[in-house]
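STRUCTURE:
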């Protein structure tokens, strides 16, 4: 099953009000495990960055001006996602921004299945904190590199969190692949052989009798 873990960083919180994507990252999963394929781009939002947003992700205007606008990476992004299921934390936020960018390009919105790990976490741990940081701490996932939000790092962390939310590494056990590789052999041809004898031979009886004769006061004769 092919899935894409998706995360974005933005100029603010309201795509309808003109906020834009400044960073987008995707990690490909197969049966919930990363394949090593990824998509990551910084994006010129073609507008000024808000101070509040820059404090969250650390991406400023001067840095972002050196990168292409979303229009320049849209085709590559859509080809990477293709028809895979999207996995995102608070998925409605990221998809609203992605679809707003696509609408500006007169492209249709993403029409794929979506898994929201925030909803998964709230169902599995009712009443408990469900932020990405909180889930990483719950599952003992290393957060030392996350001093600020970043789409690429957050995708890498979320891929690990998602695997735990769906049942840990045991959920990725592919019995079919193991069987194909020879790890499971349900039916193995074995040569026929005669049944083992269950009656002692004359030599075995003689040896047993000699052993008993050497015993002094055995308990069965008491």
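SEQUENCE:
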């Amino acid at each position: 099953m092919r899935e894409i873990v998706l995360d974005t960083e933005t100029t603010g919180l309201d795509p309808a009000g003109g906020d834009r994507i400044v960073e987008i990252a995707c990690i490909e999963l197969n049966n919930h495990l990363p394949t090593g394929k990824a998509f990551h781009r910084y994006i010129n939002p073609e507008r000024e960055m808000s101070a509040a947003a820059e404090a969250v992700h650390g991406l400023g205007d001067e840095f972002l001006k050196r990168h292409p606008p979303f229009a320049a990476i849209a085709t590559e992004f859509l080809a990477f996602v293709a028809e895979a299921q999207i996995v995102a934390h608070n998925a409605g936020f990221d998809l609203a921004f992605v679809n707003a960018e696509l609408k500006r390009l007169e492209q249709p919105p993403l029409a794929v299945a979506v898994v929201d790990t925030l909803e998964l976490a709230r169902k599995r741990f009712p009443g408990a904190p469900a932020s990405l940081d909180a889930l990483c701490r719950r599952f003992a996932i290393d957060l030392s590199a996350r001093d600020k939000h970043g789409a690429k790092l957050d995708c890498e962390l979320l891929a690990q969190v998602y695997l735990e939310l769906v049942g840990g590494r045991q959920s990725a056990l592919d019995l079919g692949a193991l069987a194909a590789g020879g790890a499971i052999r349900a039916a193995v041809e074995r040569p026929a052989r005669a049944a083992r004898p269950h009656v002692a031979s004359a030599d075995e009886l003689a040896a047993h009798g000699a052993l008993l004769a050497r015993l002094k006061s055995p308990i069965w004769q008491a």
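REMARK: The first strand starts at residue 2 and ends at 10.
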